[in-house]
Amino acid sequence: MPQQGISGHIKSARTQTGYNPMSKLTTGVAYSFSAGAMLQSILSWLTPQQWSVLSLIIGILLAVMTFCVNFYYKRKLTLAKINSFTASRYPTSKSSSSDH
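Now predict its structure.
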């Protein structure tokens, strides 16, 4: 039985299954280069100073949004504690008032 090299295994895999294992590798490499080229074009779209200003604006917006969410939930918790305290201190049940 003759020995097959790596190319023989690839050829036999291709003919038996109709699938070329090299196509998976080359597809991944092509997509990686394409994504890298797109990322490079996006990053070069703005100058470093513009990126700095953009990141400052995004940071300020995220800080304000975080403050608003935190304020909402702290207020909700405080109101729940107030309602719980007033409900336990001043019960609203109408029992035992007509037993006199």
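The chain has a mean pLDDT of 81.
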